[in-house]
Amino acid sequence: MDNRLLIVSATRLSATQFRNNSPLGISLYRLAVDGRISQAVAFENKTGLPEIYNRQIRTNPEVDNVLFVHDDVWLEDTFIADRVAEGLAHFDIIGVAGNRRRLPGQAGWMFLDQRWTRDAPENLSGRVAHGAHPFGDLIVFGPAPMPCELLDGVPENLL
């Protein structure tokens, strides 16, 4: 295994807008120096993410690892293919944020209930930098890496 990484995304932007203006498009341009990284982006997308993601899994059996990423994400680590492979050597699925437990009525990975009560830090895992530019303010949810029962994206409006 040579840690080939397929980065899959979907965007409502055109190919040119994506490459020139989106955090992921700009990040992928920088990562092009790593020949192990390929990309599959659905431009001007109106299809649900599961369909896009599952199609890429079925049509790219030769890649070692697949990373699903929204178009508003900065990929700041130029060794991302290695980082993903390192994580997958220990876990079947990896993510940037998660929760060690699942509870009845849990509204999401970070919340205990439908009132959006945030879970205790000892149950949360992950770190995310948010901002309009790379290397934004770092938000620490809890220690990482750690086994998690729930993984999810991190919507900025819920932080």
Give the amount of beta strand, in percent: 15-25%
Largest sheet geometry: 4 strands, antiparallel
Strand order of the biggest β-sheet = 6-5-4-7
From the alpha-carbon coordinates, what is the Rg to the nearest angstrom? 16 Å
Q: Total domains, how many?
A: 2
- What structural category characterises the helix and strand content? alpha/beta
Question: What would you call the shape?
Answer: globular
Question: What share of the residues lie within helices?
Answer: 10-25%
Distance between the termini: 37 Å
Oligomer: single chain
Structure annotation, total helices? 4
Please report the total strand number as a whole number. Answer: 7
Mean pLDDT across all residues, rounded? Answer: 91
Low-confidence stretches: none
H/E element sequence = EHHEHEHEEEE
